[in-house]
Batch of 4 targets.
Target 1
Amino acid sequence: METVVSGIRPTGMLHIGNYFGAVRNFIQLQESYPCYFFIADFHSLTTHPTPANLHSSVKRVLAEYLAVGLNPEKATLYLQSDVPEVAELYLYFNMNAYLGELERVSSFKEKARSQPDNINAGLLTYPVLMAADILLHKGTRVPVGKDQEQHLEMARTFGNRFNRLYQAEVFPEPQAFSETAELVKVPGLTGAGKMSKSAGEADCIYLAEPADSLHKKIMRAKTDSGPAEPGSKPSEAVQNLFDLMKLVCSADVCTFYHVAYQEGTIRYGDMKKQLAEDMELFIAPWREKISAILANDNLLAKTASLGAEKARASAAATLAEVRHLIGFRKFY
Ligand code: AMP
C-alpha cells in the first residue's frame, strides 16, 4: 500500500505560488492515498522562534490549509509536536547517523555558510528528523521537489540501515513523486524568477491578501516600455504577467491581451487592472474562508485533535515494532 507523507513548514502566509505549485497537489492526493500532512513545528525550532510567533505561525498554516481544501476527515492533518513518537524515532535514527554523512548534506552546508552564528545540532540532524517524519508512518511517497531528493535519499539510508541492523523489514523506501500535478512555476510580481517570500512582500500575492494591497501590488508590478516591434517576444516581467493571467483570467481575456501585445496596441495599465480584478475574484473566497477559520478556535481544536489521534495511532504501531526490535522489554 502506498502512503503519502509530507511536512508543511509554518513560515507565514501561503502565496498563490505555494497554492498552485504544491498545495493543490496535496488536495488531489488526499482523494487517492492515505495521506499524512504535518505542520513541521519541531523542525522550525532550528531558527529559535519566540513562543508567540511559533504558535501564531502554526495556527495560520493550519487555518490556511483547511481553507484551501485539506480535509481532516480524509487526510491526517496534524502538528508534529502532537506526536512525540517522532522525537523518539529521531533519537533511534540518530544513534546510527554519522557526522560525516550529515555534514555532507548540501542544505546543511548552505545553512552553515549563511548562518555561521547558529549552526546547531538540530540543523545538522534535520535529515534525521525528516526520515523519522516519513518512516513513522511507513511513508512510501513524498510529494517534494528536486531540492529534497538528497534528504529523501538519506531517509532511505536510515530506514535501510535500521532494517539491516535489526534484520527486519520495518521500513519501506520512500520515493519522491510529483506525478499527480502538472509542475507549475508561478512567477512573482517583481519581474524575475518564481514568486517567493525571499524576493520581498511586493513579489507575492498571498491567499489572504487584503483587496487594497492586492490591487496596489499588481498595479505596481514590473513591466517594460512596450513591445519593441509587432510580434516581438515579451520581456520576462511582462511574460510573468501573462503567466499570472493564465492562472486566473478566462481564455478570452488572455487571448485579447496576447493579441494586443502582438499588434503593439497593449496598455499595460489596462492589463494589470484586468489581472487585479480577476485575481481579486480568485482570492476573495480564500481570504474570507481563512479569516473565518482563524476565528474558529473550535474547528482548529477539533482538526488538530483528530489529526493527533490518527497520527499517534499510526506512530504507536510503528514504535511498538521498533522498540521490540531494539530490545526494549517491559519489566512491569
Ligand atoms: P516554500 O515554503 O517557499 O518552500 O514553498 C512551499 C512549497 O510551495 C514548495 O513545494 C514549493 O516548491 C512550492 N512553491 C513555492 N513557491 C512557488 C512558486 N512560485 N511556484 C510554484 N511552486 C512554488
Target 2
Amino acid sequence: MNEVKLSKRLEAVAKEIPPQSIVADIGSDHAYLPCYAVLNGIASSAIAGEVVEGPFQSALSKVRECGLENKISVRKGNGLAVIERGEPDAITIAGMGGALIRDILENGKDKLHGVTRLILQPNIGAHNIREWLIENRWELKKELILKEDGKIYEILVAEMGDSLKPYEEKKEHSIFLGPFLIREKSDVFIEKWSYELKNQKRILMQLEQAADTEETKEKRQEILHKIQLIEEVLG
Ligand code: SAM
C-alpha cells in the first residue's frame, strides 16, 4: 500500500470524502489517506493528525516526498486537538477500535462545528460509535463492510441530522450490528457475525465452568444477550 495505491479499506474510506472538501485524518500514520485524497482531487487540502512521534515523522516524510507540504498540514497532537473549530469539512478516523474513535470524538466535540461528514472505520466495537452518534445528533447515513487480507472492516458515514432515524426498527440489534448492514445482510456481514456468534458461545462455555460469582453471573447474562441479538439477526 502507498499513497498511489491504497488498501481496499482506505480506498473505501477515501471514496466517502465529499468532493473538494478540507479533510482532517486523525491517526494518520503514514498520511497515505490524505495524500491519496489530495493527489486524486477528492480533497482540496488536508490535515494529518498523529499523536505518536514515529507515525507523525512518517506522515511528515510522506507529505514531503509527495511534494504536498502546501496542501497537507501534518500536526502532532491528541485526537481533534490538532484542528481548529470550523477548519475541516470532513473528518476521517480509521484503523482503530470503536471505543477509541468514540473517545476521540467525545473529547473533541467542540471542534466538530462546521464538520459536515464523519467517516469512521473501526476495526472492532462499531456499536460504541453508533451510540455516540445517537447521543450527539449525528445521523448514520451509510455503512459499508468489506474483507481484506482475511480481516473484516466496517465503515460508518455520518452527517448532522435525525440521529434516531436509522434505528426505527429493532434499535438494540441495529446499534450492535448496524442498521444498514442488517438490511443488506451481505456475505461478509454473515461471515463476521457467524464467527462472532461462535466466539461468544465459546466464551459462554468457559464462563459456565468458572466459579459462580456475581461477576461471572453478570458476564454470562451479558454474553447470552449478545448471542440472542446475533441469532435473531442471522435467523
Ligand atoms: N489511519 C491509518 C489507517 O487506517 O491505516 C492508521 C491506523 S493505525 C493502526 C492507528 C494510528 O492512530 C496510529 O498511528 C496511532 O498512533 C494513531 N492514534 C491513536 N490514538 C490517537 C489519538 N488519540 N490521536 C491521534 N492519533 C492517534
Target 3
Amino acid sequence: MRIDVLSIFPTYFDGLALSLLGKAQSSGILDLTVRDLRDWTSDRHRTVDDTPYGGGAGMVMKPEPWALALDDLASAAPSPSEQGPTIIFPSPAGEVFTQATARDLSTREHLIFGCGRYEGIDERVFEYASSLGEVRLISLGDYVLNGGEVATMAMIEAIGRLIPGVVGNPESLVEESHEDGLLEYPSYTKPSSWRDRPVPDVLLSGNHKAIAAWRRDQQIERTRARRPDLLADESED
Ligand code: ADE
C-alpha cells in the first residue's frame, strides 16, 4: 500500500518509523511518505493560510497549495488505479473512524491524508479533491484536536496493522477488541499469583473449551459494563 501524508508539521510523523510500521516500510509492504505542504507554496514566506471570508476568529488554509500538492500526489502513483487515490481529511466534522473504517481503508492501493490546521481548509478543496479520487472526511471522535496530524497517525497505525504481513501473527488480529463487535477479554501472564492476586483458576485448568467460554463471558460482561452502546448496536441489526 502507498500512503502519502500532507502536513505543515512533517516531523510529527517520525514515530511511524518505529516498531511494526517501521518494519513494514523497510520490507516494502508499506510505502509511506510524509510531505511538507509548504513545498507547494510559491511566496517567500511559504504561506499556507489567510483570513476567513465573512470574518471570524483564526485563519483558514488557502486552497492553491492543497490543489497543487494533490495534483502531484494523485498523478505520481506507480500504477494509478482507475478510481484514483482515497483522499482522507481528518476533521472533527467527519464520519467517525471505527475498526470497520480501518478494515475498509486497509484494502485500498493508495491513501492520501491531508492534515488541516488552524480553523480548517477552504471548503472548495474537498470538492476539487473529489475530481482526483474518493474523498473522506473522518473524525477520530467527538473532541477537538489542534490539527489532523495526531488523528492521521492513529488512523495509519490502525489501518497499517491490518495490511497482510504487517503483524507477524495474524491470529492476534482476530481476538482483539472491536474485531467481533465486543471488547477484548482480560489477559494474564506469570506469576500465577501476584501480590495476593491470583490468575482466574479456569485459565490454569488446561480445559480449552472452558477457557473459550470464560473468555467469551468476560467479553460480554466488559462490553456491557464499559460500552453498552456496542451491544445496543448489535441488537439493532
Ligand atoms: N482535527 C481536529 N480534531 C479532530 C478529530 N477529532 N478527528 C480528526 N481530526 C481532527
Target 4
Amino acid sequence: MKHKIVVTGGLGFIGSHVVVELQNEGFEVVIIDDLSNSSIEVLKGITSITGIQPLFEKLDLRDKPSVIDFFKRHHDVMGVIHFAASKAVGESVNLPLLYYENNLNTLIYILQELQKKETSNFIFSSSCTVYGQADTLPITESAPIKEAESPYGNTKQIGEEIIRDTCKVSENLKAIALRYFNPIGAHESAKIGELPIGTPQNLVPFITQTGIGKREQLSVFGADYPTKDGTCIRDYIHVVDLAKAHVAALNRLIKGDNTGNYEVFNIGTGQGSSVLEVISQFEEVSGQKLNYKIVERRAGDVIAAYADTSKANKVLGWKAKLNLKDALSSAWKWEQNLN
Ligand code: WQD
C-alpha cells in the first residue's frame, strides 16, 4: 500500500526535487502549490523524470476553509512535507505582514488539521538562518538561536516554536525540522532545477545566469571579511542530497524511530566554501572565465556558516554524497538546458 504524502510548495526548487525522491521511494504524492513563485511546467519535469504524474492541487493555504476541505478529501494522508512559504530575505524586510501571514498562518492551519488525525508525520523546511552568525563553527543543532536578521528568518524561528509547542501537547503528531544550509544545483536530468523569478538573489543562479550571458556581471558582495580570501563562507549542499534527507526524515517518523515527537537536524555537507572558491570551481566546471567584480558588503550577510552534520549522519542515517563540483556542474547543465 503506497503511503500518501502531501508536499506543499511541491513545484518549487527544493519541493520538486523532494517529490522526485518520494516517488522513487514508492510514495504517492499530492502537491499543493499556489503557483505564486513556481511554474506548472515543473509538474511535467517531475513526471518526465519518474514516469508518475503526482496529484496536484492549486491552493492558497492562507484560506483556512480550503485547507480544512483539502484534508477532509485527503483523509488518508500519512504525512506532510511543508515547503510553501515566501522566502526572499530582502523582500521580507519591506513586507513583514505578508511574510508573517503567508509563512505562519498556513503552518497553523495545516497543523490544526494534522492534530485531528489519529497519527501524522510532519517535516518542516527550516533554515540555518535561525543561527545568525554562530559563535562556533561548524554549527551544531544546539547552537544558540540568534535574533533574526529579517522577518523571513523570524518566520522560520517562530515556525519551529509553533511546531515544538504543538507536538508537546499532541501525542499523535510527530515532527522533524530540517535546517538547510545553502541548497544549490539541479537534478542530473536537467529537467528540474532552480527557477528564480526576476534577478536572482542567491549566488549560484546569478553565477550560472552570468555564465550563460543572461547577466552582464556578478557582483561579489564584499571581499574584506575575516576569512581565508576575504569573501563569505557558506555550506553549499546539492539539492538532491537535501531531498534525500527529507525521505530519511519521513521514514524515521513513519517507522517510529524518532526519540521525542519533535526533532531538529542540520542538513549540509559540513564543508565551508568561500564565494571566490565557488566562482573558481564554476570556471573549472564551465571551462570559461566568469565576469565578476568586488563591491561593498550586502547588509545582513553572516561571515561564515557551515554545518556540523554528525547528528544527521548518526541519528538520521543520512550523509551528503555530492560535492561542490557535482552541484555546480548540475546547476550549469540546468542553466544551459533552460536556454
Ligand atoms: C551566499 C553568498 C553573498 C549573491 C540565503 C538565505 C537563506 C537561505 C539560503 C532560504 C553570500 C554572496 C550572493 C550575489 C554575492 N534561503 N553573494 N553575490 O544569503 O547565504 O542564504 O539563501 O532559506 O535563508 O539567506 O545565500 O546565495 O544569497 O549568498 O556575492 O549576487 O554569496 O554575499 O556571501 P545566503 P546567497
